[in-house]
Amino acid sequence: MDQRAASDQVVKTEILNRIALRPCLLSRMTLGFAAGALTVLTFPPLSILLLVPVAYSALFVGLRDLSFGRAFLVGWAFGLGQFGFGISWIAESFYVEAERFGAMAIPAVAGLSAGLAIFPAIATALFAEIARRGAMGSLLACLLFATSWTAAEWLRGHVLTGFPWNLASYALVDYAAPRQPAAWVGSYGLSFLTVFVAALPGAAVMASGRQRLTVSLMALAGIATMWAVGTLRLQSDAQQPPGVDLRIVQGNIPQEEKWAPENREATFARYLELSTQPGDFDVLLWPETAFPGFLDEDTEARDRIAAALPDGRVLLTGVPDRVPSEDGTRYFNTVQAFGATGRILTGYAKHHLVPFGEYVPFRGWSPIERLTAGLGDFTPGPGPRTLALPGLPLVALAICYEIIFPGHVVDDLFRPDWIFNATNDAWFGTSIGPEQHLASARMRAVEEGLPVIRAANTGISAVIDANGEIVARLDTGETGIIDARMPSARPPTLYASFGDWMLLALILASWSWAMAANATARYRHMRKTVMQRCG
């Protein structure tokens, strides 16, 4: 009887030990949520670079020994922390018409954050499942983690309409040298490098002995390499500047006042007054929907614009447009070009529309209204387009939200010399949203090797050179103009030529190198073991 009791006690002790060693899901999810929230501090406007390895290493360590389902939940908690805080500024847009949409603000942001958190969850679940099925060294584990993360970010930028906001690589946007590798591998490729290097300290913590030293040295080498490559690009010569003088107008009209009929004349007069301040310019730039009406139908307004434009000068302005069709009137969000005669020279229609802002997905099925004023949903334009304007370098247009999509801003067949981003961030007040939006524009400049000129209604208007550096800016809430010389373009980057194929090449090269290194290490270990046995 005593022997049986002793046996039962051994079994109970073993069960209790296994329970104690089993990862606590709640604690791991809490760790994941906190790490995700930390990533928000790595993005503009704070850009605390030291927190990048802290956040991703914490997640990497927190996924140790987890099953597919548990890793999914930890990754989802990470995403909930990242997006719950990172896109909280979206709530501001619901309070523009608070009586209609204010009650939806918190549920909408919470629901969107929970949905977007699925993408980090997919990444962590994929990583945990593959890591659990086969033994791998720390280096391979970090590469698998970075690959899974980048694949999920790429999916987030493409599934449904896509939302590639706050990619991991945007933690580097305020640092001149580290952001330059995007010229070769794009923002998704730079996310791969960022997450790989950021996970290495976590791998070093879990390693021991010589392997810990190796992984630590690899982290330092990765940082040094990214910095060195970026510095070399910054030191290389750009093309000659085009000799074009810009004038950007920031009218700073509050969103709740912009479309009120009684404010229309005051809004238009403010833009004309700012545009005619002393100084010379070749191109005048107004933001998205700067003119609160259909400018091509308003002869008097065009005459007033013509009077404000010196001979040979061009105005690029955001305006709504409408076209009759057999199915009824079609509405477009456009940028139109006007000459000194007041005649429309050319135009561009936004092709990547904002869900629930410019159109309602599944209209007829969804009870949700559009958040923006208007007579109907906008119709998307045909896609990226390069415009030729008299006396100016070729220009690509990106209206507001379109600038956040890597590789989808420039027409691949007709490379422009600069990018004009007309936007209206008045929806987001003085939140962190405009700073994060500006970060996307800066990364497009690096990827394409082109200057990005940004005109925003309430800010942030900016002149960004082809290295992603801000040459001049008007901050949120400021009223005024920017007079500046257009920065020069650089020769086409590898990313501009090959797009996300460069990301695939980077991942394949990294995996080939890591697997070869891993095989060599295994061979040496096996050889050493055999020699010891035979000795």
- Report the order of strands and helices: HHHHHHHHHHHEHHEHEEEEEEHEEEEHH
- Regions with pLDDT < 50 over 5+ consecutive residues? 16-21
Number of strands: 12
* Strand-residue proportion: 5-15%
Strand order of the largest sheet: 5-4-3-2-1-12
- End-to-end Cα distance, whole Å, is 51 Å
Largest sheet: 6 strands, mixed
Count of separate DSSP helical elements: 17
Structural class: alpha/beta
Please tell me how large the radius of gyration is.
27 Å
The percent of residues in helical segments reads: 40-55%
Q: Taking all residues together, what is the mean pLDDT?
A: 89
The outline comes out as elongated
In a few lines, what is going on in this structure?
The protein has helices at residues 2-21, 25-40, 51-62, 68-86, 91-94, 98-101, 105-116, 118-133, 138-156, 182-206, 209-235, 255-258, 264-275, 299-308, 433-448, 494-498, 501-534, and strands at residues 245-250, 283-285, 314-325, 328-338, 344-349, 386-387, 395-399, 418-423, 452-456, 461-464, 470-474, 480-485.
What features would you describe in this structure?
The chain is an alpha/beta fold. The chain is 48% helix and 13% strand. A hairpin with a 4-residue loop joins β9 and β10. About 1% of the residues have low confidence.
